[in-house]
């Protein structure tokens, strides 16, 4: 049984067209499916929890990283249930890491014609993440995006990124990774299972969804004079080449900020969430390349 979860109130006409294609295609193939439309924030969490408690099934998210994040956090039966994604968001960053086609036909074909693969995800205190977890300038960017009444989509994120870079400040924090403690004056600290944020900005360009490891990336004490070059390297996915970038792979990371900081998990903002992340190896079964 395919259980389709979609938020009909976001994404505009594009998402509606994608959703209608999926429904029509499943009907034409005489597949068993049900549709669940969310009406409020976090509803996909509760829907997924209920559906995966009923018995073996596939959850298909028609949406972006936010709805996928909610579905993952509702999963209650990893043994008998699988997760699929039809990308219909703004950035679709996780889809890029998972090799999921951005067109509805290709994404649905992947679900219908392949077997789900073991896929890592990240675990915090009561919160799961599947793409990227971070704090610092990425949070500032997200807050600027949500406050904007004019710009939309990827262009909105890029403009917010540029503004944030020139108004940036470094955040003092301490990290524990692979048994080593380090002090940072960080522009951003990210932990990646996926590779990118903001519709294609590769903060963790070498991350893999099935290596059982986290990619921990910190941009330390970036000087104003270095911002243009750093921006170009970031856009090209070469931020790990910069001298101010710290990068290490590990199974668990803990970050202790000097002051309380907002944490973003798959683009969703969390206040007062302890920044302790560990990898969960291959527990999730997901349709991906």
Task: Note down, in words, how this protein is organized.
It is a single chain. With 289 residues, the chain is α+β, with helices and mostly antiparallel strands. The chain has two domains: 2-114, Probable inorganic polyphosphate/atp-NAD kinase, domain 1 (Rossmann fold, 3-Layer(aba) Sandwich), CATH 3.40.50; 132-281, Tumour Suppressor Smad4, CATH 2.60.200. It is 30% helix and 33% strand. The protein contains eight helices and 15 strands. It has helices spanning 12-28, 43-53, 65-74, 93-98, 104-113, 137-147, 153-166, 227-235, and strands at residues 2-6, 33-37, 57-63, 81-87, 117-123, 128-129, 132-136, 171-177, 180-192, 214-220, 245-250, 252-257, 263-265, 268-270, 276-286. The strands form two sheets. Strands 5, 6, 7, 8, 9, 10, 11, 12, 13, 14 and 15 form an eleven-stranded antiparallel sheet that branches. Strands 2-1-3-4 form a four-stranded parallel sheet, with helices on both faces. Helix 3 (65-74) links the parallel strand 3 and strand 4 (81-87). Helix 2 crosses helix 3 and helix 6 crosses helix 7. The longest helix is centred in the N-terminal third of the chain and has 17 residues, at 12-28.
Structural features:
alpha+beta, globular, Rossmann fold, about 290 residues, 2 domains, about 30% helix, Tumour Suppressor Smad4
Find the structural class using helix and strand composition.
Answer: alpha+beta
CATH topology of the largest domain: Tumour Suppressor Smad4
Strand content: 25-35%
Rg, Å, rounded: 19 Å
Number of helices: 8
- Give the overall silhouette: globular
CATH architecture of the largest domain: Sandwich
Average pLDDT figure: 92
What's the structural domain tally? 2
What is the CATH C level class of the largest domain, in words?
Mainly Beta
Describe the main β-sheet briefly.
11 strands, antiparallel
Number of strands: 15
Helix content: 25-40%
Distance between termini?
Answer: 22 Å
- What series of H and E elements makes up the topology? EHEHEHEHHEEEHHEEEHEEEEE
Unreliable residue stretches: none
């Amino acid at each position: 049984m395919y259980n389709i979860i979609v938020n009909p109130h976001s994404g505009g006409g594009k998402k509606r067209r994608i959703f209608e294609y999926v429904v029509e295609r499943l009907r034409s193939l005489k597949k068993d499916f049900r549709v669940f439309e969310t009406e409020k924030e976090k509803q996909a969490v509760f829907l997924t929890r209920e559906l995966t408690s009923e018995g073996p099934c596939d959850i298909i998210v028609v949406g972006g990283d936010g709805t996928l994040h909610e579905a993952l956090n509702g999963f209650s039966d990893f043994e008998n249930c699988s997760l699929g994604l039809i990308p219909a968001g703004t950035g679709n960053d996780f889809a890029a890491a998972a090799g999921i086609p951005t067109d509805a036909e290709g994404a649905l074909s992947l679900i219908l014609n392949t077997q789900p693969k073991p896929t890592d995800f990240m675990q915090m205190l009561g919160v799961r993440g599947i793409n990227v977890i971070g704090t610092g300038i990425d949070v500032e960017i997200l807050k600027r995006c949500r406050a904007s009444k004019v710009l939309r989509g990827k262009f909105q994120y890029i403009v917010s990124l540029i503004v944030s870079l020139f108004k940036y400040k470094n955040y003092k924090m301490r990290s524990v990774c692979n048994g080593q403690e380090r002090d940072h004056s960080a522009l951003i600290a990210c932990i990646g299972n996926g590779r990118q944020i903001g519709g294609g900005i590769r903060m963790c360009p070498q991350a893999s969804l099935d290596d059982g490891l986290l990619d921990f990336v910190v941009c330390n004490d970036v000087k104003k004079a270095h911002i243009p070059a750093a921006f170009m390297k970031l856009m090209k996915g070469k931020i790990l080449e910069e001298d101010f970038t710290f990068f290490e792979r590990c199974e668990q990371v803990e970050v202790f900020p000097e002051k309380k900081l907002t944490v973003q998990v798959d683009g969703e903002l969390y206040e007062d969430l302890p920044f302790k992340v560990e990898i969960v190896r291959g527990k999730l079964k997901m349709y991906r390349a």
